[in-house]
Predict the structure.
Amino acid sequence: MSNPIAGRITLNLVTGIVITVVTVIAGIAWMAHRQNIQAAEGTRTMVMGGIDAMHTRVEGLANDYSWWEEAYDAYQRGDATWIDANIGTGIVDTQIADFLAVISPDGEVRYSWSTPEDAPKPEKVLSPETIARIQDLIRSAPVENNAARSSYLVTPAGAMLFGVARIAPVSKLEGVDPKSLPLLAMGFYLDKKRLGTLGKTFLINDLHLEFENGGERNEAFPTLSDVFGNPIGQLVWTPPAPGTAVLRNVLPPVGVVLVLFCGIAMLTAVRARRLALLQAQSEKQAVSAARTDSLTGLTNRFGFSEISESTTFAEACSRGEAAIVYLDVNGFKAVNDSIGHQGGDELVRRLAERLSMIMPPDANFARVGGDEFALALIGRAAPQAVAGVASAMVHALDQSFTVGGFQFQVTAAVGYAVAEGEDMTPAELLRRADLAMYQAKNSAERDAVPYHSGLETGALHKKRLGFALRTAIDEKALSVVYQPIVRASDLAVVSVEALVRWDSKEFGRVSPADFIPVAEETGFIHDIGRFVFQRACEDMANWPGLKISVNVSPAQLRDPNFANDLAAIARRNGVVPNRFKLELTEGLLVRNPTIAKRKLARLKSMGFGLSLDDFGTGFSSIGYLRQFPFDWLKIDKSFISELGTNPTANALIQSMIALGDAMDIAVVAEGIETSEQLKLLRLLQCEFVQGYHLAKPMAASEITALLTRLGEGRRMFSGPSDSGYVAERTS
């Protein structure tokens, strides 16, 4: 070996040593830094979770003390003794809170308790302005849901977290004006001891509240704002730095290892001078072995990829002088299962030998998988010869193979493609041959299948649709429309169904029947579901008292975080779950009824309503109605379309309505398209109806305009019109 070559090897090794040392040290420092960041983010998440838990606790306490009919009656008769003995003890005796006050509808503090004794009295804390703001805070909470609200106040004793709820008559809510109900406010101070206890839960020793002092806020720490929206201060703590501690412990031993590494590397440089020549001699053998299949002696997948990606093959493709054949053995797993893998390997060797015998002299024949083979042809005769070669490959397997004393008859799926035109690339030619082979396999063809454009329908379109859907989700190109559901007896709007829509730049208006299955296969359905639920929460703020139905995919319900995600979205938007009905199809329940039952019970316990969609199209719907806690069932529109024309359909619908009545489940008939269908459903005493005859799906702004036009009664006349509905304000 010459000295210049040895010098280059030594220089490369020294450079590699320096780069390695720098990379290791930089990598360790970077990992320590990232560990510190992750620890800080994790601690912030835990603190925010603790704050949410405190809100939940104080709201739960307010609910417990206010949702009490005896308390309401005692307040109405002015029984201060009863109130003090039953409500005031929560502060005086049990000390579950530091502050409790009962506020009259006109804004007067009627009863109050506080602890400790030197703490400011509620009358001092609750100024008229504060009471008015608290009344605004609870105003949006519905009485029937016993939903408390919580916020913060700044008092002379420090910041206080409080919850407020209406003291309501549980059994006499009907007709009660929420403004006429007294309020119960209770809370506790965020003092040093309480915050310290919360911090120690998350291994934080110095969690405290720093009040606003005019300086810049640290975005790493959460800011608390009072009931007026004014910032109180920030929850501050010393972020953990586990990465720094690890760095101090790791660097000394790593330094020793790096020194040893440098010494060994220099010795390696000396040995490399002697090994370079041997390596050069064996390189040719290694290259050949890397491109050869050890079992059959044919070119392997790597070698075939080099051939198909070579300049020579690319030029042949552009001239239309190249062809590819793919062969896949059918039922090969059965051979392995019957005679073992050694027998399967023997069969592959004999199959390769037989196929090799029919190959043209200039063919590149390769084994590219366990039971997959490929053939590349180049030359002017390739386009004409490939069909005959591919057919010969199929029929070469007509004769059985004898392995281990057993005879096996195997068949193969063979597809091929011929280069066409100057724009043809090797990758496109391979894809076409692969597509033709799968067509042969799926259709069980007994001869080779050539590629043709008709093969491009299903799979490619679905893949393009999936890419476009991902872009639409990222660019927020999806939209939500709503179709009213009305009471059949007086045509009053009681609910709307949220329906997702997609207007694609590439495909135009895409039907949900096309893109929802793609979303389920790709996992995009989770993003779509969260988007629809979030949009519904935002829109329903303008529709007080109106419920919304949201369709749920089986893939969504399989997500272990599905229920918690819905609850979190509803909580962020200030929406109670019982304003939603989750519509599920029977197919969701058939696959795993045990798991489905548990998950639906979880959703039900959180307050969500449940509706069984497309009722009557499955094979065991009645059994599921008995097992699962459904509130609604929707009769499929396929039955409604035959209503009045098919006596069997009439009888089935009547039976479904009777079944719903017997099981105390509300029944919705969907797909109402004629006035005759509506009349018959009324005669059959169907409770709710939905369909184009009453109202088409419309944007949120149109729903708002419709509800404004209908007024409090929300009563609609059925009949055709330009907007899909005709409405009348009830007197």
Notes: Residues 3-66 form the longest helix (64 residues). Residues 144 and 556 are 30 Å apart (CA to CA). The mean pLDDT is 84.
